[in-house]
Amino acid sequence: MKRDEMEQEMLLKELAKCRSCRFCVDVCPTYQSYGGVESFSSYGRMQIIKHLLNGTLEFDDALTYCLYSCLQCRRCEVVCKSKGQNLDICELIQRGRRLLSARLARGGKHAKL
Ligand code: SF4
Ligand code: SF4
């Protein structure tokens, strides 16, 4: 298995640990500043990464903006950890960005994931 595929598998496994409780959503500053749009929350970003990797979403500028608007402030992680889930959300978002941007770079401007 290629390194890229292995990383995808490991990342999807980590993302699957999310219980979809959404406790982390309300504390996310970008979720707040976008008037409660879930795509701009911690949970929303993890869902976007998961669906892009699975091929059930197609990459576009709006999704790129959602992923790169995360401030990496870790407020979501504090809540997730306090609720016993313990997900490293910032790291998962960073890994998703790395994996997806590397694929886009390889595929050129009109690449589809
Ligand atoms: S608090 Fe943790 S488990 Fe709950 S939705 Fe957020 S990331 Fe998932
Ligand atoms: S790290 Fe990102 S997703 Fe988490 S609360 Fe901060 S801006 Fe939101």
UniProtKB/TrEMBL annotation:
Protein name from the UniProt record: 4Fe-4S ferredoxin-type domain-containing protein
UniProt KW Plastid keyword: no
Residue spans crossing the bilayer: none
GO molecular function annotation: iron-sulfur cluster binding; metal ion binding
Segments forming domain 4Fe-4S ferredoxin-type: 8-39
InterPro entries: 4Fe4S_Fe-S-bd (IPR017896), 4Fe4S_Fe_S_CS (IPR017900), Helical_ferredxn (IPR009051)
Keyword Metal-binding: yes
Keywords, sorted A to Z: Iron, Iron-sulfur, Metal-binding
